[in-house]
Amino acid sequence: MDFMTYVEEHRQEIIEATKSLLRIPSVLDTYDPASPTPFGAGIHEALMWMLDRAHADGFVTKNIENHAAHIEYGEGETLLGVLCHLDVVPAGSGWTSPPFTPTIRDGKLYARGAMDDKGPTMAAYFALKFLKDLGVPFKKRVRIILGTDEETAWRGIARYFEFEEKPAIGFAPDASFPLIYAEKGMWTFDATGAYAADALVSFSAGERYNVVPSEATAELAVDLREPFLDFLKYQGFKGSVSGNVYTVYGKNAHAMQPHLGVNAAFVLASFLCDHLKTPYVHAIKDMFAFDPFAEKLGIDHTDKEMREFTMNVGIFRYGPEGGMMGLNARYPNGFDLDKAEEKVKRALKSHQLDYVIKNHVPIHYVKPDTPLVNTLLEAYRKITHDHDSEPFTIGGGTYARALGHAVAFGMLMPGRKDVAHQVDEHLHLDDLIEATAIYMEAIYALTREP
């Protein structure tokens, strides 16, 4: 059957359902495992919306303690997993239209989560729904697994797999086409220290380790209004002064590509270093500012297959209780983490800061010549007729890691700008439709054999 034609006939249904899910502000609140809404009301609402929709469409569903859930169809011993997530990063400021009011302009659907990961989730969902509606027999069971905490600590998916079997194979529609077969290792840590009070009363930027901060603020006990406004003017940055609070605006970007953003904290710290002796802002400038590849620390590294090591400083906090920075690094093959940690510890110590490890996730790698990769790649090529684009590696981290024998598969099309975690995040409506057909073809092909 021509899956693309079938999907196109249901174009409006897909778009309207995607808009409904995007209206839900499913940003992490606080985590309370004992609560009926463990990740907050917004994420819970998104999870319930998906399960209600799937139940109404005739699927078998299961909710695991409101931490995660699945939607299942098919039969057989082998389980195929499609790993999605419903949580989104904070919206930030500067949107052209409200981030949770899905808006269509010039063939694009704008909303937080459009690409990461609600749009791809709906494409995968409708792919499975349409195959079911067509009565296509499966020789495997298929589960769309709905995570709720992918953007932070993966507590939802971890709880899910405490109770449910792991699929033998799978894919995560949470990256790019044609296919991602390897993901860099992830290294997350804090730099913390106590400082004596001085002219810097407070400093704050960022909410997540995996997002480049687009806004930074500092409260000062001295008047630097005139030089600050001159700095903004001549350096070409945007900002403001309100009383003794100084604000700078930058540009969000995903932590896997910090060089695509403008870290507002780096800008503000650079200004303050010209006027204050505060060790905290000098630590930012000396060790991290405008250095996404960590050359200042001497831990830069490049691998031919997985490319550069990157480092993002995503969280900044300074006040009477002390100072901290939250960092997230992505490392490729050949990177010596032990040696890098020692260099970082020495550098931090020289700036009165301590090293506190938060998390380490090793490299995820699936050989690019496996049947799983070949089948998915063929599905992509059959629908798109793109025989030039080749599988590649990324610095991002997807739920593919949670399975082992799984890869990231769409739905960002080759040549499209990656706008995940950025202001005015959007998807192309034609891509949403085409991705649905690709996922139909992929699920169909992967369920032909037991």
Task: Please supply descriptive tags for the structure shown above.
450 residues, alpha+beta, Aminopeptidase, Alpha-Beta Plaits, eight-stranded antiparallel β-sheet, six-stranded mixed β-sheet, 26% strand, globular
Secondary structure topology:
Blueprint: H1 3-9, H2 11-22, H3 41-56, E1 60-64, E2 68-74, E3 79-85, E4 103-105, E5 108-110, H4 114-133, E6 141-147, H5 155-163, E7 169-172, E8 175-176, E9 180-183, E10 185-193, E11 200-205, E12 215-220, H6 225-235, E13 238-242, E14 245-249, H7 264-273, H8 279-287, E15 302-303, E16 307-308, E17 310-319, E18 322-331, H9 337-349, E19 354-361, E20 364-365, H10 371-384, E21 392-394, H11 400-403, E22 406-408, E23 411-412, E24 426-428, H12 429-446
Parallel strand pairs: 3-6, 3-7, 7-22, 8-23, 9-21
Antiparallel strand pairs: 1-2, 2-6, 4-5, 5-24, 9-20, 10-18, 10-19, 11-12, 11-17, 12-14, 13-14, 15-16, 17-18
Strand segment count: 24
Structural class: alpha+beta
Q: Classify the fold: give the CATH topology of the largest domain.
A: Aminopeptidase
Q: Rg to the nearest angstrom?
A: 23 Å
**CATH architecture descriptor name of the largest domain:** 3-Layer(aba) Sandwich
What fraction strand?
25-35%
> What's the average pLDDT?
97
Shape: globular
First-last Cα distance: 21 Å
The number of helices is: 12
